[in-house]
Design brief:
The chain has helices at about 1-20, 25-60, 75-90, 95-100, 105-110, 115-130. The chain has about 150 residues and is mainly α.
């Protein structure tokens, strides 16, 4: 898989370089929007992962004091982060919807990252036959002892 990631990164880098040669603002904006959208999608995933980790940890009767760090705002922190990222993601180009006529090119350029993400994610799940793990079925490593206790 590292070779595939390297080739994909090289292809995107080459595409970015080519936009500077041909002075294509449209391609540059599409690439910019795609990279920005993936950042918000990553933060949405982090919020979901944090929420599910803590819920699964507690569902198995584990002690939160064994964790090296505990978020003081759980469960509100990840829920707030998810809602905020979702609002920013969906509202990135609200101007395309304001005048009563939808600017489909602007909408596509802004939100192109969402269908690409869904295609890759659902494709991965189909190929690997992965599924969501129930809280009770999650596995956690035993917490490491602090260096002073060793």
């Amino acid at each position: 898989m590292p070779l595939v990631a390297l080739l994909a990164t090289t292809a995107v880098g080459a595409l970015c370089f080519l936009t500077s040669l041909f002075e294509s603002k449209a391609v540059y904006l599409w690439l910019l929007n795609l990279s920005g959208m993936t950042g918000f999608i990553a933060w949405l995933g982090i919020a979901v992962s944090h929420y599910r980790f803590r819920k699964g940890y507690v569902a198995q009767g584990r002690d939160l004091d064994a964790l090296p760090y505990r978020s003081p705002f759980f469960p509100y922190g990840p829920v707030f982060a998810f809602a905020l990222c979702l609002a920013v993601t969906l509202g990135q180009n609200y101007q395309a919807f304001v005048d009563g006529k939808i600017d489909w090119i602007a909408v596509t350029a802004t939100y192109i990252g969402i269908p690409i993400f869904l295609l890759i994610w659902l494709g991965y799940r189909a190929v690997r036959k992965s599924h969501f793990v129930r809280y009770e079925a999650m596995t956690f490593p035993e917490p490491a002892l602090a260096s002073a206790e060793r």
